[in-house]
Amino acid sequence: MVKITDVARHAGVSPSTVSYALSGKRPISEETRRRIEASIHQLGYSPHAGARALASRRSNVLALVIPLRAGIHVPVVMQFAASVVTAARQHDHDVLLLTQEEGEAGLRRVADTALVDALIVMDVQLHDPRLPLLRALDRPSVLIGFPQSSEGLTCIDLDFRAAGELCVEHLAGLGHRVIGLVGSPPEVYVRETGFAQRVVQGFTAAADRNRLSSSVRPCESTPAAARRVAERLLREQPALTGVVVHNEPILEPVIDAFEGLGLRVPGDLSVTAICPDELAELVRVPVTSIAVPAAEVGAGAVDLLMKKLGGGCAPEATLLSPRLTVRASTLPRP
Amino acid sequence: MVKITDVARHAGVSPSTVSYALSGKRPISEETRRRIEASIHQLGYSPHAGARALASRRSNVLALVIPLRAGIHVPVVMQFAASVVTAARQHDHDVLLLTQEEGEAGLRRVADTALVDALIVMDVQLHDPRLPLLRALDRPSVLIGFPQSSEGLTCIDLDFRAAGELCVEHLAGLGHRVIGLVGSPPEVYVRETGFAQRVVQGFTAAADRNRLSSSVRPCESTPAAARRVAERLLREQPALTGVVVHNEPILEPVIDAFEGLGLRVPGDLSVTAICPDELAELVRVPVTSIAVPAAEVGAGAVDLLMKKLGGGCAPEATLLSPRLTVRASTLPRP
DNA sequence: TTCCTCCGTCGAAGCGCTTCGACGTCCCGC
DNA sequence: GCGGGACGTCGAAGCGCTTCGACGGAGGAA
């Protein structure tokens, strides 16, 4: 293994000079830097991560806690993870993957052993048991998602309430008066996952504001459940002409179900969804939708963390505004 | 921060004794160990990962390279990742997440900086550009998936060839004489991803062996493509009564497509798939299938790595035998 | 009883890096 | 012409842990 002293000797300088040349924390003359870089290259030097972490008290590793629970849509989680990794790399950090299995103990472990400098936590519940720990930890953290109160924390996410509202406003703007929400699986609400509830709140608030008749139905992520929910919505509100779907796996099944009940999309029924663009575009009738901007959220989370690591302070709440992409599934009410 | 010297002082022993008590690398009397454990608990000590890595030349971190490319089925990847993390934790290791973005440079970086002790690489191509690097690296690695030649490497995966064969044998055993394979998206074959090709090989070999008439069609992961492929298969082989699907996202669309063409499943057409059990069970007609045993593969990969890290040697190839679960989608030929 | 071995513990020497204070040197302003 | 910065570099002191050799004492064999 080639170490910094080898490089130093080869370049005819002291180890500290090599270190400074590498970190840029002190000025180094152009010529010396060049020599050092050449030596590094020739010798194939790469600094030992452990030694660096020990001496600098920075591991340059972030922890990412990903959810693997029922009812979550895996591809979206993966998008988050990928964007976090990419963003972290841009800041010269790596990402340690934690699952929720280990729970709070895992968070505490990686933080206490200084394995990581900071933490990113996904799939936050309204009353998440990890919150006290995160508040108490000496390492900064960012939550992707919002608990009941973000006090003393740093949270970032799509503004799901606004997303729910925006879907309704879009439908209302097209003249629809009777609308329904096909929601996430019941367990997601039972767990009090913030984003699902917030969509419902936004949906309901906007419906009331626009004096629309509305109803909300959680729905298991199976085609059969989709059919049941469609039937039920239609039975309760026969004049239904607009639907919002917040449940990725059954977007297409829901549309199929309504068509099976004799409603053409978008002829008789306008459909909007909160789901990734790829999904919305893949459906038989491309669906007007609001995407979760996973890349932005991931990058934003990392940026917030870097700010905190740099000693700066970060806002408690960062809400990204929803953007609705109009596709073929929504039309003015006939 | 509480360190090992603090624990040592508190317990009235030397730091090395604490270290040995923790690692078990030398015998420590029952009583001393108890005192040390008590001190650790009271003081809330956790060893500094960086210091440990520096002194012991082991970071206790594994790198996991996950694929994020077109045509791969994300939930399966996630299952692998989760099982790797779980297995790694059981061996007191953590997992560093790498995406393929950084490519070979990323592998080299985490290996050379001693950030990780070993590597797990997923989504291996037949002629994967990373192979020479993995062979040359001074750190052990395990591939999940098989390249053309596994010489000098350690690979583990479901035996996809056997899986393809098993699907055919099952259909042949039921009396079907004309069968088709709805494969993965074309780009997966173009990339020469081993597992997809091996299914085709197994399918073809078993079909020939059983003197079945067979044909193979790659298929994009969209319902429209599924419909086209179904039509085409049927046009070419009007007597078709058996189909193998190796393309998770369109399993249900393929069945819909055939039913749309007038074939009842399983009445007129038997369908088997290579896909996760959850998916196979979720379809309208539960599908006879072979699952990729993600948990086993992940755990196996970690075990192999641990063996190599312990100085042992690991077999170049570990193929897990496919297991076929019979469900409602296959029946004897009428 | 003597010698040897094994057990349990200690002290010290690093592991490879960063960082702090110090020390010339050069240049600028007065 | 001289004081004072800024610049560029060095040496040394750790960062917190593991590990190696050593050592005293207990116990068994001869």
Describe the structure.
Chains A, B: Keywords: DNA-binding, Transcription, Transcription regulation. The structure is a homodimer. Chain A contains 14 helices and twelve strands. Chain A is α/β, with parallel strands linked by helices. Chain A folds into three domains: about 5-45, 434 Repressor (Amino-terminal Domain); about 60-160 and about 295-320, 3-Layer(aba) Sandwich (Rossmann fold); about 160-290, Response regulator (Rossmann fold). Chain A has a six-stranded parallel β-sheet, with helices on both faces. In chain A, strands 7-6-8-9-10-12 form a six-stranded mixed β-sheet, sandwiched between helices. In chain A, helix 12 links the parallel strand 8 (about 240-245) and strand 9. The longest helix of chain A has 17 residues, at about 75-90. Chain A is elongated and about 85 Å long. The N and C termini of chain A lie far apart (about 75 Å). The model of chain A has no long low-confidence stretch (mean pLDDT about 95). Chains A and B meet through helix 4, helix 5, strand 2 and helix 6 of A and helix 4, helix 5, strand 2 and helix 6 of B. Strand 2 of chain A pairs antiparallel with strand 2 of chain B. The structure holds a DNA duplex (30 and 30 nucleotides).
